[in-house]
Each structure stands twice: as C-alpha cells, then as structure tokens.
Amino acid sequence: MDIVIFGTADATRAAAEFTVCGGYLATDTGLPEANGQRYKLPAGIFFTITGGKISRITTYYNLSNWIAQVSV
Q1: Would you state the pLDDT for residue 1?
Q2: What domains appear along the chain, each with residue ranges and CATH number?
Q3: Nearest to 20 by CA among 47, 71, 59
C-alpha cells in the first residue's frame, strides 16, 4: 500500500498522501469517453480535526494528469 500520513502535534490537522489506482467506468459530463481505462494518480487529502473528530476534508489531485491517462 502506498500511503503516508502526517499530523500536527496538537492533533487539529492531518494529511495523507497516496496513489489512487482505478478504472474509468462511467463517462462524466465534459470529460473523455469512459471505456474502462486504468489510471494511477497521486493524490493528497487534508483533514481539519475538531473535538477529536474530522470536521473538514479537502482532496487534491492533478486533473490534467488524470485526463491524459484516460484519453488514450
């Protein structure tokens, strides 16, 4: 598994860096035609933690990279 997890000393923020491996099965509006194309995409998720619980999640990935992979 390819995942690295980070956290602040005060436990109010955390992050995870990982690789998404998947298949593009259903075409989304405005994106390339889906034909089961496989992709492997680096991604990051950032968490805000309030009262010991996750209160916000923000996900980042490179959409241009993903489009290039599924456009072949």
Answers
A1: 66
A2: 3-70 (3.10.450.50)
A3: 59
